Give the backbone structure.
Amino acid sequence: MFELGMAYKNFLMCIIIFVFCQRLGHTKKGQRIAYNCWLYTEEMILECFLARLDITLLQLKVPPNTTNISCMHSQLDNANLFQSHILQSAASIEFVNLAYNELTELPEEFFKSNRNLTEINLRNNKLATVPRNLFQFLKELRLIDLSNNFLTSLSGDTFAMNPKLQIVELWKNQLQFVSEELFRNMKEMEKISLSRNHLEFLPSNVFMDLSNLQDLYLFKNKLKCLPSTIFYGAPKLSVIHLGYNNLQILPEDLFAKNMQVTNVKLWANKLTCIPKILFENHKDLESVNFLLRNWGIPINLRQRFSNNQAYNTIYDLQRLLQMYGNDTCIQHSCEWDKSSSTLDCSYRNMSSVEKLRNFCENIRHLKLNGNRLRDSTEIASLLEMQQEVRILELQNNHFSGKLNERMLEKAEYLSSIDLSANQITEISEKFFKYCPFLQVRFFKSYAHTVYS
Ligand SMILES: *[C@@H]1O[C@H](CO)[C@@H](O)[C@H](O)[C@H]1NC(C)=O
Ligand SMILES: *[C@@H]1O[C@H](CO)[C@@H](O)[C@H](O)[C@H]1NC(C)=O
Ligand SMILES: *[C@@H]1O[C@H](CO)[C@@H](O)[C@H](O)[C@H]1NC(C)=O
Ligand SMILES: *[C@@H]1O[C@H](CO)[C@@H](O)[C@H](O)[C@H]1NC(C)=O
Ligand SMILES: *[C@@H]1O[C@H](CO)[C@@H](O)[C@H](O)[C@H]1NC(C)=O
């Protein structure tokens, strides 16, 4: 008890000293307008730090010429009141920093009076969502920081009206999915961070037309694979952080359009294959990290390569890639039609779909006819990776006897399945219960259609 008490006192002392120094640091003349809130009229700044805006918000008054509002760690929880009482009167603010507060939601009109905003910091709040129109009038916006909130999704047009965005911080949220529209047409974008989210897949064109993007942080997600063209639209990429994901293979042309790449982190993935030519023409490369957990690649490659060290330089990386790298990591020979999202692997003499596990586009129509497939459990795990499949063609394969009753468990959107011309003798009642949209089923050697 005593120890705890002491620790608590020390903690309080630290905070007091910290706040005191904060105040001392201010040479500008301020007027205290509420508990731990100051107004600096000459500099046109409102600043609260460790204030109690849950209680004292109405004591604040800001002149219309205010340009900066910074209210951090101040227990702000009433967004509506902050809007009507502060933001509306300080119409010309350019910078607003509301980090480390208790905001759980923001009204759509929150920034409607503040059309000259260039930087918005909302990190470390409790936002589970932001209205899709929240930023719609902010033509001058250059920075948005929404990191360390509880965002589970963002509408694809959230930033559609902010063509001047340069920095978007979205790290440490709970995003499972990023719309391919989210960063569309942002010619000035320099840095995007999506680290520490729950992303498993990225749409292949999510970084399209980001001609100025230099830093991309995707650290600590659950990425299973990367479409080979994912970085094609961002030719100036320099720093790419992909550490701590679940990547198994890298397409050999992954960085083919990113000739200015300097720093690539791929540590703590599950790599089993690195293409020889991954960095073939990358003259600016300074550092590449393949350390930790990448058990499937030779130890010589499972290293950090950097020009700032005596051995394992980028020159060594190139040499070792020639020795231990793979010619290709993409092993299937199927045809991909992007416009219809169809993957055609028919008549390829395949006895397993193992090689499709790293196929990184969302397949809607999967053709596997005329192969030698026999393992329905393996199909189940492929469908777990490919949950968008609508049409599944498996006719004329070697399935026999009873099918795994959970083969379609993850194929939630399946509307049509063709298993005709196999030797299936039994299908469990539960087999179809996972597929509410299933309308067409072909089973025997003749077509037997059931409309349900
Ligand atoms: C901003 O407005 C306040 C009050 O309206 C005024 O006292 C102050 O001088 C103004 N600041 C500047 C820099 O114009
Ligand atoms: C306002 O805030 C921005 C961003 O925090 C800062 O760069 C700028 O110097 C501030 N302006 C003034 C007058 O303090
Ligand atoms: C925004 O900035 C422009 C140009 O500096 C200025 O004319 C306009 O009055 C500002 N708007 C507001 C609401 O302060
Ligand atoms: C990649 O090459 C290594 C040897 O350098 C080999 O053991 C491994 O099986 C290859 N992986 C693939 C997917 O071809
Ligand atoms: C199909 O694959 C099997 C085993 O890999 C092989 O024995 C057979 O010759 C192949 N058939 C054709 C037509 O390529």
In short: Residues 335-442 form a domain with the Leucine-rich repeat, LRR (right-handed beta-alpha superhelix) fold (CATH 3.80.10.10). Residues 2-25 form the longest helix (24 residues).
